[in-house]
Amino acid sequence: MVTDPVASAILIGSFVGMLLLGTRIFLAMGISAVVTLWYMGVPLMVVFQKIVNGVSSFSFLAIPFFIMAGDIMTAGGISDRIIRLSKALIGWIRGGLAMVNIMASMFFGGISGSPVADVSSLGAVLIPMMDKEGYDRDFSTTVTMSSAVQGLLVPPSHNMIIFAMAAGSVSISGLFMGGLIPGVFLGLALMIYCYMVSLKRNYPVSNTFSVGELFDSFFSAFWGLLTVFIIVFGVLTGVFTATESSSMAVLWAAIVTFFIYRQMTIKEFWNVLGRTLQPLSQIMIIIGCAGAFGWVVTWLKIPEYLVNNLFAFVDSKIAFLIMANLLMLFLGTLVGMSAQILILTPIMLPFLDKFDISYIHFGVIMIFNLGIGLITPPVGGVLFVGSAVSKLPIEKLSKSMLPFYGVMVLALLVITYVPDLTLFLPRLMGLEP
Length: 433
What we know:
By secondary structure, the chain is mainly alpha-helical.
């Protein structure tokens, strides 16, 4: 490894400059790495080797399978049954349909790991339902977008796999379990806020509680819910790796939708494959280019420089976590999530070691921060999807999101400074010392 201030300036300057010009993130990372190595006289073949190495991990195979499992659940009627079960569970509370939205995201978003897929699929169903019951459309949309963030925390989440690979020595199973309680905690916080708003605005009760409907909807959704059980139980017991459990989830979801629910056709299955390839190609090219970019960052000793100089005045865990949260919240509004995880994780690792912060705990904090960025202007991708689904302008949704930002930031502070919320289950399962 070398220390070259000029090369570091070229790398960071070209990367930031291309982002400001609107260049795609994978091009910005790849081109800045090429330009820097060219300046230093390093063979450019190294860049392509690092891109290939970046996507060669066996664990990354889980990403397309989790995305596909989520698409199959949507196309095959599993998500509709989850909505019905959620409605039977809490639809009898005032503002219950908003809570149904949150609970459905908890189930569905955890499988797909994609807030964009969550908002586009569940939003297309639940926002019109909430319209019919008298909810304000901007409120319905902001509930849908906010609840999509918790799907990033609830296992399984392919973003946790990306963090585990970037960190290098983190248990994927530990991350899955670490995100469960924070995800549920965030969901409960959002539900409490929705209940308070529903009382103030006199939103309706969706339905009366019925034991018969509860059991009927549970048995209707049972086979689909087993998809979640297969993934979590398989990984925890060691029967499957995360990659193997993702492929089993696809197989089981396909069996359920083809042969039990009988709502999936061969033609629709081919459409699912097409829908899977689009986000997959975006994620994998970002991972590959981030692998090359991250290698150059490490080779130039930029993380070591930050530890020894830029953040030398940070002498406590509390101060570091405040700064890290502010940095990740800010950057999350500008750059996509996968790229941020791959860029920031190697830079943050020395600080985690310095302040004895659990990698699992910090991984959950990072994913939560960057998830908030997905629903925050100017770049927030989920915000634009919510606008497209609801036909409402970004400006109106951004204003309606303000109290939800407050709820999520409060939840983030609790998760940040009460690490036992994250680490209780991993320690219980022997996945964290």
